[in-house]
Amino acid sequence: MQGRGLKLMGKYVLKRFLYLLPTLLGILTIIFFVMRLIPGDPVLIMLGPEATPEAIAKLRHELGYDRPIIMQYLIYLANVLHFNYGTSIATGRPVWNEILAVFPFTFTLALAAVFFGVLLGIPLGIIAATRRGTWVDVVTSLAALFGISMPNFWLGLLLILIFSLRLEWFPAIGAGEPYVITDLVKHLILPAVTLGLPMVAIVARIMRSSMLETLGENYIRTARGKGLPERVVIYTHALRNALLPTVTVVGLNMGWMLGGSVIVEKLFARPGVGSLLVDSIIGRDYPVVQGGVIFFAFLFMVNNLLVDILYAWLDPRIRLE
Amino acid sequence: MLKRLAILVLTSFFLGILAFGCGGAKKEGETSAPPSQKGAAKDTLVVRLAGSLQSLDPHKTSMTYDATVISTIFGSLYRFKPGTNIPEPDLATSYEMSPDAKVYTFYLRKGVKWQKGYGEFTAEDVKFSFERNMNPANKTVWLSMTRNIEKIETPDPYTVKFYLKEPDSTFIYQVSNFRIGFIVSRKAVEELGDKYAMNPIGTGPFQVEKVEPKQEVVLTVNPDYYGEKPKFKKLVFKVIPDISTAEVALEKGDIDVLMSLTDPTAYERYKKDPNLQIAESMSTGVWVLYLDNSDPILKNLKVRQAIAHAINRKALLDKIWGGMGVLAVGPLPPTLPGYTEEVPKFEYDVEKAKKLMAEAGYPNGFEITAFIATGANMPEMMTMIQADLAKIGIKVNIEQTDFGSWLPRLTQYKMGLLPISSRPDGNMLLSQYFTSGSAFNVCKYSGIDELLKKVRAETDPQKQAQLYQQIQKKMVEDLPAVYLFHEKRVDVVRKNIKGYTAGLFWEVWTPPIIIE
Q1: N or C: which end of chain A has fewer CB within 10 A?
Q2: Is B405 in CB contact (< 8 Å) with chain A?
Q3: Integer Cα distance of B120 and B114 in angstroms
Q4: Region of residue A231 (left: phi > 0; alpha: psi -120 to 50; beta: else)
Q5: At what angle do helices A286-314 and A3-37 cross, to 10 degrees?
């Protein structure tokens, strides 16, 4: 993209960011009020059943939870505009720190799952498309169905039983020694496969159908008519176009995974955004839930923006508006 | 061609896995494997925690996971002999109680050092610890347990005097290693402030080396510990929330101790496993079905008695808990003084229950909503109780919610399940849920207020036991709640760990554990 194209994209990005702000505000408002509508008192949960009414009242006052709810909301809004997301009721640490402490684990897991999904899914999709109607196609489709249908809890447990207990190839628990790359990767494999297998299925299916569609196009017939080897036809001509829907799907899935997967995290005893959010909801840790949801919403929207830009870059026919 | 490419991709992927796998397998024999990965190294004990840590400050957390770790780092004036609720000297070597049970004098152990060079343990630390809990500004969770303390004096660095407002002969339990009794270092708390929660300084056998609240805590032996030192070097607590993953880890040897097993099928399996051993202790708590005694229908004693006769408690214990417990005849468990079986019995008898319901004026039963939390087998238990009560015409609607919402709403419901966890003595067990002063008086019962006051004022253990017997009898006669059973605490431990005792509460380490 040259000069004018770049400027157009710049305007587009700016516009998208401007749309982001009211959306985030809306999400923040909904989460704020919903959390306070559900029963359960964070102060009581924190102080425990032995707490006296005086202690509870005192802490509630200190944390500002006895003020009228609109006031609490406005104060929170004001803080957020100053990038102050408050402190966790449970740990007393800044919400931002809590999120950043676990986010790298979620990010690497999401990346690994996507990598696995794409690495296996694209070739499988291509094979199914080019061998359409043969047993290869049928087996691949069945495998895809299986992959999407398996509950990830069950799959994860199965992988642990086989690869961790019986074969002892991979560890079952934890994220690994910090800063030791080989250890971190070892601990990543089983969770990544658990999260990524449904992705393999989805990617394979989409690759297959978009590949079939592309292979039916006229320019493919032209390429074959020109006498190009089949390999070139598939890789140089068909693949590039068939990849487009896959890019979108993978990109969007990546966005979802950035919110963490509490089931996989709990199963493999990995820290992550999913567990942080769920545990905070259960403990009624309002600031962490609010901050966490905003963070995730922001990432999700930025992720979608990147996917749109990538798509526009890959397909010159698309104009960003 | 494409097929070849696909085969190449798939093969390299699986070869990659194989390479990692073989690399991993080779490491097993190496001693350089970090202890947090291969726990069965001879000098490390690895214990599973079921949830992440909130705080290691004994006064700022009531979570059981925290309590387990805290019990290895901190000491108390007295502590419970392992597996029992009998206090023995710890940071204090002896004590005196005034005849009216209002003044306690503790003589402290000399030469005890705080971990990591925070000086010597003195009476100042004891005064500081308790006053910390007494001051609402400190936001400690045990404020209510200090309500009876008038003042604390330290006549010399090794003597502490507690002056109580009302006589309390059970005070010794409140200065033991359960909840409020842990002593913190004044110097460290003043210096570290909020950071103390993740960098605790105690006088116990272990000190903190590394804390990752959501993953693990690594502790090493305190070189200055005055008692019998551990015979191994490191203690690691690993956070593994999912029970199936924890069971796999135990079978693999990645963890050595799995506490509080509640799954009966796993229990059967582990009993037969040659690599594992079971350590049990009888709890000093009780499971009850609480009933709101102020409700127009439930205030009728015959109705409550009918409910007690209608529930098949043995089936409850056997089917859902795999028999891991003992049926209750009253609120007090067999392990506490005052336990007596000379009380009215409520055997499973549906006909008798129906008769009682008719006598009470409810031959066709009534409808009621029961409240439970999801977890600890409560839904399964309540479903069985629901079926039992249906036979005598009581239609039970079950409302359940997560633990967070459950606790504050207990008193809003007329019926529900309540697991009262182990307490050191009958007073602590009963005063929280069965006395009129408490915020958690779920049964709205006041029948033992006077008796408990007498218990606290009674200094003769024999007479006290008799008072407890009276309480047991009265609570069964009045039947404010249906007493279901006393849970057994079951810990599963690797065979090569010798000398492990399942503690009564959440303690996990006491001598003489040896790892072979």
Answers
A1: C
A2: yes
A3: 6
A4: alpha
A5: 150
Instruction: Label residues A218-255 b or e (16+ Cβ within 10 Å = b).
Output: eebeebeeeeeeeeebbeebbbebbbbbbbbbbbebbb
**Which member of A44, A130, A169 has the closest CB to residue B2?**
A130
Residue type, B364: N
Q: Which residues of chain A have pLDDT under 50?
A: none
C-alpha span between B176 and B82 (Å, rounded): 12
Quick one: how far is CA B229 from the chain centroid?
25
A251 in contact with B, Cβ within 8 Å:
no
Q: To the nearest whole angstrom, how far is the Cα of A16 from the nearest Cα of chain B?
A: 36
- Closest residue on chain B to A189 (Cα): B17
Residue B40 to residue B47: CA distance in whole angstroms: 11
- CA A179 to CA A6: how far, in whole Å? 38
Report how far residue A264's alpha carbon sits from residue B436's, in angstroms, rounded to the nearest whole number: 46
d(CA B53, CA B69): 9
Q: Which residues of chain B have pLDDT under 70?
A: 1-41, 404
* Cβ proximity of B425 and B287 under 8 Å: no
B107 DSSP β-pair partners: B94, B159
Q: ipTM value of the model?
A: 0.76
Name the strand (E) or helix (H) holding B331. none
Beta carbons of A113 and A198 less than 8 angstroms apart: no
- The pLDDT tens digits of the residues spanning B322-369 come to 888 999 999 999 988 889 999 999 999 999 999 999 999 999 999 999
CB B455 within 8 A of CB B169: yes
Determine, for residues B252 and A172 on separate chains, whether the beta-carbon distance falls below 8 Å: yes
Q: What pLDDT was estimated at residue B503?
A: 82
Res A219: pLDDT: 83
Put simply, whether B245 touches A (Cβ < 8 Å) is yes
DSSP lists the bridge partners of residue B220 as B207, B234
Contact list, A40 vs chain B (CB under 8 Å): 402, 404-405, 408
- Cβ atoms A152, A201 nearer than 8 A: no
Question: What secondary structure letter does DSSP report for B502?
Answer: -
The answer to whether A24 faces chain B, any CB pair under 8 Å, is no
Q: Cβ B215–A175 below 8 Å, yes or no?
A: yes
Nearest-angstrom CA–CA distance, B465 and B469: 6
Within B74-206, residue ranges assigned H as helices are 123-134, 171-174, 186-192
Residue B2: the pLDDT is: 56
H or E segment to which residue B33 belongs = none
The verdict on A58 touching B (C-beta cutoff 8 Å) is yes
Contact B383, B398 (CB under 8 A): yes
| Residue B214 contacts A, CB cutoff 8 Å | yes
Q: How far apart are CA B509 and CA B516, in angstroms?
A: 16
CB spacing of A40 vs B408 below 8 angstroms: yes
Strand B44-49 with B234-239, pairing: parallel
Cis omega (within 30 of 0) for bond into B512: yes
CA dihedral sign of residues A43, A48, A49, A55:
negative
Residues with Cβ within 8 Å of B358's Cβ and at least 6 positions away in sequence, in order, are none
Q: Which residues contact B298 (CB under 8 A, 6 or more apart)?
A: B291, B292, B304, B414, B415
Distance, in angstroms, between A211 CA and closest chain B CA?
14
Which of B1, B9, B239 has the CB atom closest to A269's CB atom?
Answer: B239
Domains and CATH numbers, chain B: 286-488 (3.10.105.10)
Cα A38 from Cα B453, distance rounded (Å): 39
Per-residue model confidence as pLDDT tens digits over B429-463: 898 889 987 878 899 999 999 999 999 999 888 99
